[in-house]
Amino acid sequence: MVRTLVWLLLLLNALYWSWAQGWLLPYGFGPAPQREPQRLTQQIRPEAITLLSPDEVKRESLREPSDDTVCLQSGPMDAAQAEAVRRLLQTSWSPESWLLMEQSDGQGLRLRLPALNPAQQARLSELSAVLPSGALESCPEPETER
């Protein structure tokens, strides 16, 4: 009786292992495949991601911003104009280099380019062609607490 139970358990384990390995899929048995190809197609520039060690993160956070960066912003735009600007920026600018934000008075959106390096500054002409006013102005200086 115990011998039969042991052989039955061994057979069931072998059957489960075959099922889990997918060896029974040609016969219609097996686990459902776990794939999500839509996630791969939704990725935006995955090659731009770099992993940093904790030491590298500390060095990056301590590094002072360089003096050759410039902060620019554009005037207010409506939703249609903002969508045209967003399409251009999503295709050719890095996501951390721009920000579309709602104005404080709620009268449209404002494009902000917080830290443009010289290479990005050279590409401003393509962006100015899409902006409604075509002009970019310097960002206001942050207010200091008294």
Short description:
This protein is an alpha+beta fold.
Task: Please describe what this structure looks like.
Helix content is 40%, strand content 14%. The longest helix is centred in the N-terminal third of the chain and has 20 residues, at 2-21. By secondary structure, the chain is α+β, with helices and mostly antiparallel strands. It has six helices and four strands. It has helices spanning 2-21, 37-41, 54-62, 79-92, 118-122, 124-128, and strands at 70-74, 99-102, 109-116, 136-138. It starts with a helix and ends in an 8-residue tail after the last strand. It is elongated and about 90 Å long. The protein has a four-stranded antiparallel β-sheet with strand order 2-3-1-4. A hairpin with a 6-residue loop joins strand 2 (99-102) and strand 3 (109-116).
